């Protein structure tokens, strides 16, 4: 019996093909350490072929009627809905998150596909008649060419769907590089995209690590790159691709704070806090990893600990509250930062290290962990832990809490829990963070808006999906036209003045 793990294929010119590489990366189930597949480091020749194919396909796709492009994504959203359970199961096996989280991952990407199907209402220019005598002026939003996307391990369905549907719907072609840690569900989504009607060469997929990333950043035929991932890699992509003259958008690391005012609805606030801090095992850039307790809410610590301790850790397919971390390296890093917090003076209120799940003794499990009395100079605060760890801090006033958050370099998301309209208004006005929740822990916008993380959490002016994605993936062209009557042969004077 052949037990060799299957290989993940590439997509080049509409064909799924095996790579000729000699370098393969194992994909492991994070709950069992079983190697379930292997993914190639695409060769330079394969990457070049994918880009060449996309460049050629752009010439016909860019002039495909916008209604036809829209219908592709109407069909695509239907196919995703029909295959939701399969997609969630694939995602859970390779990424580790619970089935409920996996469905949410797919669904939030599906919402962007639905938005892309309305591209005819989004990709519109403007027109003014008679800006001067017999002169009209109008703008059109045209696709820019071959675009690329580099996606992370933590949302292997949602984030690819943030990127290629909007890029392709606006008339571009696309090269996708999924995370090398879990590309299987991404490839299934790509299969469904072809089934929906995306033509050959319009969507291509290559694999690998830094070599593939650098090739995409450097290639002159790629006009724009969208990236979601760690801050270190995001800065590298932004600098390298920017120097090559490309448009770049990079969504990166975060340190998201929740402020709890003493007038907040206690039960609702603490329930939401536990889910936002520990959901997806804390492996999301919008996780609420810091809570700032203001005034009398400082007395709620024991109840935060009690609610957090009730969360159940298990393999993702068992669909409890938390699954494993993505890798042994990720687990080791999280545990190192927990210990660093203790060594630097934080008090551990709930310790998730050494978490064991029966039947999954090799899994990368860390249970909910709470560090109390955290200060801004501790490494558990200055670094993004990316695990199920909540840091508790204190402030005497709302102004002090706002200062803590605004001093942190990151600006992805934040939230306030209060029943005071005055407090909420002051917070949303004074806070220097791109996405703000009011009695809502994870303020990720729906696709009719755009993801608007800020400061060190984002490089580039425009965010993924929504209105800003249409701007990112198109070039505005202004046309000024004058037409003369056929018999207008007299009275037309030549002028060289700028009027």
UniProtKB/TrEMBL annotation:
The UniProt record lists the keyword NAD: yes
Gene Ontology MF annotations: methylmalonate-semialdehyde dehydrogenase (acylating, NAD) activity
Q: Which PROSITE patterns match?
A: ALDEHYDE_DEHYDR_CYS
Q: Which UniProt keywords apply?
A: NAD, Oxidoreductase
Please provide the Gene Ontology terms (biological process) for this protein.
L-valine catabolic process; thymine catabolic process
Q: What is its EC number?
A: 1.2.1.27
UniProt-recorded name of the protein: methylmalonate-semialdehyde dehydrogenase (CoA acylating)
**Organism encoding this protein:** marine sediment metagenome
């Amino acid at each position: 019996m052949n037990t060799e793990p299957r290989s993940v294929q590439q997509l080049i010119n509409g064909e799924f093909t095996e790579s000729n590489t000699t370098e393969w990366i194992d994909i492991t189930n994070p709950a069992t350490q079983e190697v379930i597949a292997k993914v190639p480091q695409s060769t330079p020749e394969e990457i070049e072929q994918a880009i060449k194919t996309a460049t050629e396909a752009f010439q016909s796709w860019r002039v495909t009627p916008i209604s036809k492009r829209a219908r592709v994504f109407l069909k695509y959203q239907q196919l995703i809905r029909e295959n939701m359970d399969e997609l969630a199961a694939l995602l859970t096996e390779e990424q580790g998150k619970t089935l409920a989280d996996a469905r949410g991952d797919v669904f939030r990407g599906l919402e962007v596909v639905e938005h892309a199907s309305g591209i005819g209402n989004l990709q519109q220019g403007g027109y003014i008649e008679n800006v001067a005598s017999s002169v009209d002026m109008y703008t059109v939003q045209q696709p820019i060419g071959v675009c690329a996307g580099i996606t992370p391990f933590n949302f292997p369905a949602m984030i690819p769907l943030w990127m290629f549907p909007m890029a392709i719907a606006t008339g571009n072609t696309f090269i996708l590089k999924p995370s090398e840690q879990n590309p299987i569900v991404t490839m299934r989504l790509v299969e469904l995209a072809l089934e929906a009607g995306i033509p050959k060469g319009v969507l291509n997929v290559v694999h690998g690590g830094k070599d593939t990333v650098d090739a995409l950043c450097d290639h002159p035929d790629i006009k724009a790159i969208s990236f979601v991932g760690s801050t270190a890699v995001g800065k590298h992509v932004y600098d390298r691709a920017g120097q090559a003259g490309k448009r770049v958008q990079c969504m990166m690391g975060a340190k998201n704070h929740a402020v709890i005012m003493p007038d907040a609805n206690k039960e609702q606030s603490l329930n939401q806090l536990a889910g936002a801090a520990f959901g997806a095992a804390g492996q999301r850039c919008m996780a609420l990893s810091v809570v700032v307790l203001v005034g009398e809410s400082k007395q709620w610590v024991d109840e935060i600990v009690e609610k957090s301790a009730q969360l159940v850790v298990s393999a993702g397919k068992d669909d409890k509250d938390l699954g494993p971390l993505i890798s042994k390296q990720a687990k080791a890093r999280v545990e190192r930062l927990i210990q660093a917090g203790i060594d630097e003076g934080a008090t551990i209120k709930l310790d998730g290290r050494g978490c064991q799940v029966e039947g999954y003794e090799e899994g990368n499990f860390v249970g909910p962990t709470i560090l109390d009395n955290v200060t801004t100079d501790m490494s558990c605060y200055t670094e993004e832990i990316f695990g199920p760890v909540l840091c508790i801090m204190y402030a005497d006033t709302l102004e002090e809490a706002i200062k803590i958050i605004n001093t942190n370099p990151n600006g992805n998301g934040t939230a306030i829990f209060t029943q005071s309209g005055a407090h909420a208004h002051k917070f949303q006005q004074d806070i220097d963070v791109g996405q703000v929740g009011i009695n809502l822990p994870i303020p990720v916008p729906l696709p009719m808006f755009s993801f608007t993380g800020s400061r060190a959490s984002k490089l580039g002016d425009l965010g993924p999906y929504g209105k800003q994605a249409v701007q990112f993936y198109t070039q505005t062209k202004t046309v000024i036209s004058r037409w003369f009557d056929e018999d207008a042969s007299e009275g037309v004077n030549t002028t060289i003045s700028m009027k």
